[in-house]
Design goal:
Blueprint: H1 7-10, H2 12-26, H3 32-46, H4 49-61, H5 66-70, H6 83-96, H7 98-101, H8 105-109, H9 117-139
Helix pairs in contact: 2-9, 3-4, 3-6, 3-9, 6-9
């Protein structure tokens, strides 16, 4: 696969608003472990190798257990995820596949027990942002680092 264009070099100013959102997530109310699970799950759905490499590496550096990353694609069948994580992952899948799901009330309602309204907005912006990054990386055929054979 040949990289189509390096969007970091071509339009760094255009990326500043997205980078500001990322900075907000680092200092926001959502636990970092949950942020990385959400980013990884959306990137799995979208098939974004660049983002999968980045977010699984980041999660492991922060102490995430490899088993939870291995099973993330099958989170509904695993007891390794908390009810709060399950609610966030269901919302992640709904919004990432929004053309198919229409963001059902069941998934939205599942958030209310675990997240404040402000956290629901932050989670929704997180999901929106990772989907945008996935589209940039996939659309421009960004190469993930080749640090493992």
């Amino acid at each position: 696969m040949t990289e189509r264009l390096n969007y970091w070099q071509v339009a760094p100013e255009a990326l500043k608003p997205m980078l500001a959102l990322e900075e907000g997530f680092r200092s926001g109310a959502l636990p970092h472990s949950l942020v990385e699970l959400v980013k990884t799950r959306a990137s799995q759905i979208n098939g974004c190798a660049y983002c999968l490499h980045m977010h699984t590496s980041d999660a492991l550096k922060e102490g995430e257990r490899p088993e939870r990353l291995f099973l993330l694609d099958a989170w509904r069948e695993s007891r390794m995820y908390t009810p709060k994580e399950r609610a966030a992952l269901a919302w992640t899948e709904s919004l990432t596949r929004i053309a198919e799901t229409g963001a059902p009330d069941e998934d939205y309602d599942g958030l209310k027990e675990h997240f404040s309204p402000e956290e629901i907005v932050e989670l929704t912006l997180l999901i929106t942002t990772i989907n945008a990054w996935n589209r940039l990386a996939i659309g421009f055929r960004s190469h993930h680092p080749h640090d493992r054979a």
